[in-house]
Amino acid sequence: MRTNRPDKCLDDYDLVIIGGGCSGLSLATAICELAKTPEHVPQTLIIEPRSYYTDDRSWCFWGRKSGMDSKLIVKSWPAWEFSSNSVRHRHRSETDWGYHYVPSIRFYDHAEKILALHPKMTLLTDSCAISISPAASGIEVEVKNGISRTNTKIQKIAARQVVDTRIPDEVDFSRAALKQVFLGFEVKTHKAHQFDDVALVMKDMRVDRMGFLFDYVLPLGRDSFLIELTRFAPEYMPPESLRDGALELVRRVCGDNNYKIIRQESGVIPMGMRDFVKSADPRWIQTGIGVGSARPSTGYAFKRIQQWADQCAKGILFEGQARPFPPDSALLTWMDNIFLRAIRENPSLAPTLFMSLARGVHPDCLLRFLTDIPSKRDLSVIMRSLPKLPLIQSALGEISAGIQSMRGMQAW
Ligand SMILES: Cc1cc2nc3c(=O)[nH]c(=O)nc-3n(C[C@H](O)[C@H](O)[C@H](O)COP(=O)(O)OP(=O)(O)OC[C@H]3O[C@@H](n4cnc5c(N)ncnc54)[C@H](O)[C@@H]3O)c2cc1C
Fold it and tell me: In angstroms, rounded to a whole number, what is the distance separating the alpha carbons of residues 334 and 388?
């Protein structure tokens, strides 16, 4: 068993957080930061299979530079660009919004430091939860310790509340409307590059026989980039299938023999989940990427997770009850679903849709839409900017799918 508190061996906790990833650590640090005093922090155990953290992902998001984020952000871009077929639309906010980059290792290190300052927080690494059994007296969590070794040990822990950030068994990512599949590299160039200080968030949007794809190119410094190839795929595909294309992209951006790969990252993010999980027991909250923390139409999740973590920590500290991930508004969900259905059914439409938004919508209006806070007026501007016929067809498809699923439920 590896823990940040080797002297402590409790088997009774106010709160057990399953998974010390983005959601789990965000919640734990939010509790520490919002607690009035260290004693106010609930006795908490975070269970994480990893033995140690690595820089396994880059978290980028639009927003103001504020609060916890500002300590973690290592790079911000004042402008961002969408392009397709050599046409480019560069956006810049009229307010103080930027596109920000948080390397995951900075986030993990920061979280570990905060937890170390709070004696009531225990991070148990190299361990995983293997079963959860709610009972009248509390929730029993079975934990396997030392999973990287041969002599594993099973331990039973009692919790008053559990926040579970694993992907629930009943959630099937392959049923998501689209899968955002990506693979890329952080690279250092031997010579300084000539790129502007602009985040190329959807560069060279295009379609090939496998569907819609685009490049993601972030100039991190004068001699470094994050470069990723991204696809919105209707069916699951392994990120490794993008390796050759991503390497070719790196050569295009940096020039042959002018770069060194520092690290690699890849992933599959579900866009438009069809499986909805509702916790049967209010003391056992399920959250994270498997339960809707990624915005359906974009796959962005980091900022949404921070906002949820703040709310959930307040619920735990001031009401004694963890809060689940909040659903998006019905209208936003509806628009996202129509958008995803249109791209799924006709991938060649995707560059036109994104370029119409970039061309026809004011950057601040688009930012509000992308970050889940659009006004009704913003939504109407967004709708008016998009090509009508394909979206009407997609909306009709959504209505018909809704009717069919209601019929299915009635028959059942
Ligand atoms: C490479 C990559 C880049 C991304 N970039 C962005 C980005 O730029 N912007 C953005 O908004 N979003 C991004 N995302 C999406 C999203 O923000 C991340 O996936 C985020 O980590 C999701 O948080 P989470 O808590 O749901 O999952 P995770 O961070 O994966 O945390 C889940 C944790 O549960 C643990 N776990 C699993 N099984 C068990 C078990 N049995 N017991 C205990 N613990 C368990 C895992 O080890 C893990 O630590 C990216 C995702 C990836 C993969």
Answer: 16
Compute, in angstroms, the gap from residue 22 CA to the centroid of ligand 1: 6
Mutate to test the pocket of ligand 1, among 2, 16, 18, 22 (most ligand atoms within 8 A of CB): 22
Strand pairing report for 138-145 and 75-77: unpaired
Identify the residues whose C-beta falls under 6 Å from ligand 1: 18-24, 47-50, 57-61, 128-129, 165-166, 265-267, 269, 288-289, 293-294, 300-302, 305
Contact, 305 vs 25, CB < 8 A? no
pLDDT tens digits for range 264-294: 999 999 999 876 777 789 999 999 999 989 9
Enter the CATH code of domain 2-55+103-171+274-319.
3.50.50.60
Annotated domain spans of the chain = 2-55+103-171+274-319, 178-271, 330-403
Query: How far is the first Cα of the chain from the last one, in angstroms, to the nearest whole number?
Result: 47
What's the CATH architecture for 178-271?
A: 2-Layer Sandwich (3.30)
- Does the pTM of the predicted model rise above 0.85? yes
Distance CA 294, CA 57 (A): 15
Question: Torsion over CA of 341, 101, 226 and 352, rounded to 10 degrees?
Answer: 30
